[in-house]
Amino acid sequence: MAIVSPSILSADFCGLGDQCRLVLEAGAGMLHFDVMDGHFVPNISFGVPVLASLHQGIPSAFFDVHLMISHPLAYVDAFARAGAGLINFHLESEDDPAAVLAAIRAAGCKTGMTIKPGTPAEALDPWLDQLDLVLVMSVEPGFGGQKFMPSCLDKLTALKARREALGLAFLLEVDGGVNDETAALCTRAGADVLVAGSSVFAAADPAGAVARLAAM
Ligand code: DX5
Ligand code: ZN
């Protein structure tokens, strides 16, 4: 059984609360909240006030916040206060990872570190013992609806082996192009958490899509 984290980037923002409730009722374990600054990635999405509204409206939801921003350190506290359960930031961002991790922990959130497709899994080595979750990108961050990059699979396998060798317990999450076909490859390679945007929210039956992914 996989944990499904639907990416609300692909939701219909006109009825965002209802879309969130629908996927949670269908068995989503958390909600993936993609923050983009138009600098770290060539796109802008949504930020703190949207998270605050969703958290207020659906207090039981666990928000898996994915910061695709150049300076995560300056925003950790604001996202934590707005209701983030876990804060993912990119190893490739411009801030000192140790400082960002300390800020996330001090704010009372779970820690997540993310790598882009071009970053090797070994680059995470110095940080693994401080992480609750590792996010392996399976597309270049910035847009939903892209094609899955199979090169993420070897990274998942390597990180799973590393976790075992080190006796750690971080979750392995994969994000980008995850659908019925690619999800099976990811869970076989070691993914515990499946982020899925378009394959859930653009589906004719989003609840069914969540249930199928959760059964992987
Ligand atoms: C991409 C985002 C993803 C995106 C995934 O930069 O991090 O979370 O929403 O969308 P799909 O599942 O459509 O690839
Ligand atoms: Zn994401």
Task: Characterise the protein shown here.
Strands 1-8-7-6-5-4-3-2 form an eight-stranded parallel beta sheet. It is globular, with a radius of gyration of 16 Å. It starts with a strand and ends with a helix. The mean pLDDT is 98. Helix 2 packs parallel to helix 3. The chain has 216 residues and is α/β, with parallel strands linked by helices. It has helices at residues 16-25, 48-57, 76-82, 97-106, 151-166, 180-189, 198-201, 206-214; strands at 3-6, 31-36, 63-68, 84-90, 110-115, 133-137, 171-175, 193-196. It has eight helices and eight strands. It has a single domain (3-214), classed as TIM Barrel (Alpha-Beta Barrel). The chain binds D-xylitol-5-phosphate (DX5) and zinc ion. D-xylitol-5-phosphate is lined by residues 7, 9-10, 32, 34, 66, 139, 141-146, 175-178, 195-199.
Under CATH, the homologous superfamily reads: Aldolase class I
Coarse shape: globular
Distance between the termini: 5 Å
The total number of structural domains is 1
For the largest beta sheet, what order do the strands appear in spatially? 1-8-7-6-5-4-3-2
Structural class: alpha/beta
Estimate the mean pLDDT confidence. 98
